[in-house]
Amino acid sequence: MSPTTLPACLRHWATVKADEPALTFADYSTERDGRRQTLTWQQLAERVDAAAGALPVSPGDRVAVLCPQGVDYVVGFLAALTAGAIAVPLFDPGLPGHAGRLTAVLADCAPAAVVTTSAARPAVEEFLGGSVEIVAVDRTDATLTWPAPEAKPDDVAYLQYTSGSTRSPAGVVLTHANVIANVRQAVRGLGLDPREATTVSWLPLFHDMGLVLGLITPLVLGLRSVLMDPLAFIERPVRWLELLGDRPGAWSAAPNFAFHYCASRVRDADRARLRLGRVAGIINGAEPINPDVLDRFHTAFAAAGYQPEKTRPSYGLAEATVFVTTVPDAAPQVTTFDRDALGDGLAREAGDGVRLVACGAPAGQHVALVDPETAVALPDGSVGEIWVHGPNVGDGYWQKPLDSTETFGARLTGDHGGLPDGPWLRTGDLGVRYDGQLYIAGRIKDLVIVDGRNHYPQDVEATVAGVDQGIRPGSVALFAIFGDDTEGAVVVAEHRGQLTEQSERDLAATIRRLVADAHGLALRDVVLVPQGHVPRTSSGKIARSACRDRYLAHEYGKALAR
């Protein structure tokens, strides 16, 4: 019988695969080519037990994980679960630009203890001000007193805090049953072979996709996990690709920007020595998928053996653990839809228009496209809110009963073709099912409506990004503002060049003209800003609401070309 909780999975593999490698961390902080630290399943279990024994917690207490990326993060997370507590995967306070989010999350979850490392401890103590017990997981010699609290499948395993792209962070309550079900769904949808696979990840372990790919999936399936620090990827993206080619059957995942970053930054000499024909698959998710970026990545690494069918466009969100839909073993499918029809809520193919990447179909769960106003399930070809129903959907938001009911307790009305009445997860995402596959149109809260017409931000943002080579791809934000009883659209775009005041005005005028021609949208304002001034969420998505707030607070200075 398969283990039904995460601690039980660890104990199982520590017995069955005691001396086989469980976890490798490629540390590039001191050596350019990296230094490997590996733990076997038995060594990992021993370290987890020692850290769990040092935790001053009772069942149900929250334990915040404030470790740097690495082996200690995995140990700290699993120690919290082994001690019977609820883990809260976070990050050490040194992560730039996220102190406010960390403060808000800690206040919300009220941890009884914090796990970190001895090196990070001084910064953590300073940040917390002595209010919470701190345990350095790399300096424990405690022994876990058995029998440890025995978790049950419906017990809460961890709180996954959302990235906050349209709201303040909220902790999704995920049980052991939720996360193990989602791993099983992903195995089925991706065709992952547990007998041969290795997972390779640079994604932050505090992020849903990073946690499930780099820690939970290997733990449930008994796979080897290879981790690296996100900063090491940013410094030299080829490191990720090298690790992927080290062993046959490697799986990984990344947001769209990583594919663009690799295609742009990896040198020809480095590409020549990569062995990407050994890669089993790379999931592309966490933000709208740009078909041009996929084409560029596939072209850049074709000589290294990478095949387009290894790229798996997918859709998911923290409220559903992470995985919802993915494509089969085939090259990504790109469909061009009529822009005006899509704005009116209908998918109709056209020779020229909006190019969207298919994100496949669900495995082991239901996905419905629903009219968000009437809760009526829509037929294929109609744009609606994406609703999800399945054993992977979380129990709600931590200590937010009203938000939980609204988001996790939706029910369909009318004739819904045999789909469950509920409860359904309302994702807040717009999509359309066309020719059996799900296409993502955007976020409901990000939709820009001007003169009665719907405009999807990422569509307009792609047009703006193509206007000038100096505009940074993936660093454009479109949002709506209100004035004179009407809604207007504003674009804020990062520009890497040195522009004179006149060249700024000329470029802004060009952006206005091309957006008007392509989308029938008259921009109220165009603002060009230096690199790093378009805010992002912790997962790297454009935070359009935060960008709007900065604009309305006049943080971008004098607006251009009014």
From TrEMBL:
<dbReference type="InterPro" id="IPR045851">
    <property type="entry name" value="AMP-bd_C_sf"/>
</dbReference>
<keyword id="KW-0276">Fatty acid metabolism</keyword>
<dbReference type="InterPro" id="IPR042099">
    <property type="entry name" value="ANL_N_sf"/>
</dbReference>
<dbReference type="GO" id="GO:0016874">
    <property type="term" value="F:ligase activity"/>
</dbReference>
<keyword id="KW-0443">Lipid metabolism</keyword>
<feature type="domain" description="AMP-dependent synthetase/ligase">
    <location>
        <begin position="11"/>
        <end position="398"/>
    </location>
</feature>
<dbReference type="Pfam" id="PF23024">
    <property type="entry name" value="AMP-dom_DIP2-like"/>
</dbReference>
<protein>
    <submittedName>
        <fullName>Fatty acyl-AMP ligase</fullName>
    </submittedName>
</protein>
<comment type="similarity">
    <text>Belongs to the ATP-dependent AMP-binding enzyme family.</text>
</comment>
<dbReference type="InterPro" id="IPR000873">
    <property type="entry name" value="AMP-dep_synth/lig_dom"/>
</dbReference>
<dbReference type="Pfam" id="PF00501">
    <property type="entry name" value="AMP-binding"/>
</dbReference>
<keyword id="KW-0436">Ligase</keyword>
<feature type="domain" description="AMP-binding enzyme C-terminal">
    <location>
        <begin position="446"/>
        <end position="555"/>
    </location>
</feature>
<dbReference type="InterPro" id="IPR040097">
    <property type="entry name" value="FAAL/FAAC"/>
</dbReference>
<dbReference type="InterPro" id="IPR025110">
    <property type="entry name" value="AMP-bd_C"/>
</dbReference>
